[in-house]
Protein: DUF6630 domain-containing protein
Amino acid sequence: MSDREYARYKAGASGLTRLITRHLGEQESERLVRHVEAKYDSSGPTNIDEIRWLFYDAMLDDEGQQRGQWFMLQVDWKASEEVAWQMQEMLAARGIEPVWQWDHEGKTVMQGLSELSRWLAPRPLSLLIVDYESDSYYALIMETALVEQTITLGWEAGVKILSFADFAVTQDKQ
Structure:
């Protein structure tokens, strides 16, 4: 990958980070942007698969999202008990009341995400999936008006972001 291509992905990752963390306030959002940029600077040009994992590492490592300022869900495919508390963190960081309630007993992570997606719609918020093609789920909550911009910035950052509806279709085929 050329330095120019790499710089384009880094700029995309900075813009994406700024957008998905804007609800956390300027100071926290800019801290995360600087962290993403430092992660990219420490790696240097690489291939596209490594680019998307750089973004993941920056968002979810010890310097990434912090308790009380949650913006990205990360749940193993079989850990349905993780969905509700992580979503509570994400909703609280957005100041959303009433909080979403979900009983995970006997349900899958995908069922929880589906229920949450329906619950968010009238607020008007949308659930987006960051698709790392792994056996875990990664999700964002975004204002519905910003969904297309988020997906586009994801593409510019080398990160595959899908609406929940589009992601759900891919899961039905497996």
